Amino acid sequence: MPTSRRTLLAGVAAAATLGSLARPAAALAAPSSPDGFAAVPALGLPGTTGGAAGPSVTVTNATDLAYYAGRNTPYTILVSGRITFDDMITVVADKTILGTGTTAVIDGGGLQLGSTTRPGNNVIIRNLTFVNASDDSISVTNGAHHVWIDHNDLSRGYDGLLDVKRASDYVTISWNHFHDHSKTTLVGHSDTYTADRGHLRVTYHHNFFEGTAQRHPRVRFGDPVHVYNNYFLNNELYAVASTEDAGVLVEANYFENVAHPAYVGYDKSGPGRLVERGNVYVNSGTPQTAGTVTEPRTYYAYTPDPAASVPSLVRAGAGVGRI
């Protein structure tokens, strides 16, 4: 049985320094609702609510985190302090995992949303720092749908920092800070995993991809994958790649010091489709484009911020301690 559990105390606040986005943290607020694909009613869910229907518990160690993440009932799991472990903890349906203050850290391990027998649907992950993962920091897999990953800090993992694959769907990735890593975020398991067709609808918005080399994201099969209002800075290899007939809309982003903002096809993967509109390119190359993409407004309403305002907005709002 778990060794610690308690209800969230209102008004948790802290001041700490974490990475280049650091500033004094505001009081921890209750999660608000997601936008983008995570908010779309589909597959029997009205949107993404996480563990709102269940109680709140606080965890300070990996044993308790794994226990509550694997329960078959809703929970809001409040992570306090640094939790160090290896490998992946499985998160099953109807969970919110929320860091308290600015010092909640997952060190050495990662979170896997769903297994082949226990789906990771309706999951929210917010306000956590992920570092030194021995595999992925966050893996959305095995058909998990309605997932919101928001206001986290992810760096220095072994494989992907945040991957969406194996027929997962209706995912929003927003206001995260990705840094000090190579293979950042993948959509689609592999060139041969054609079961991903018809799934992998993902929204990326207001993320800061700082000094990460590639995969922001690299997409296979998904259509549409909507990449808007993100800040790409000093990305060595490329920013976005659409492959294997994926449909990617790259909209109102800010690219700075990015030689290859967008590829159509990459490495051994066949070409996808990619549309760009309203982006700003500063000391950056020309994006590759091809074909047409399903319009995200088919699914949800949104109003992009002007691309020129993205660096200041994202620097001020992305990462931990901002909710």
TrEMBL record:
Q: Which residues form the Pectate lyase domain?
A: 52-261
Source organism per entry reads Catenuloplanes niger
- Specify one Pfam family: Pectate_lyase_4
Which UniProt keywords are present, listed alphabetically?
Carbohydrate metabolism, Lyase, Polysaccharide degradation, Secreted, Signal
Q: Its Gene Ontology biological processes?
A: polysaccharide catabolic process
Indicate yes or no for the key word Lyase: yes
- Spell out the subcellular localization from the entry: Secreted
Provide a Gene Ontology MF annotation, just one: pectate lyase activity
GO cellular component terms attached to this protein's record = extracellular region
Q: What class of enzyme is it?
A: lyase
InterPro entries recorded for this chain? Pec_lyase, Pectin_lyas_fold, Pectin_lyase_fold/virulence, PEL, TAT_signal
Name the record gives this protein:
Pectate lyase
- What's the Enzyme Commission number for this chain? 4.2.2.2
The residue range of the signal peptide is 1-29
Q: Which family does it belong to?
A: Belongs to the polysaccharide lyase 1 family.
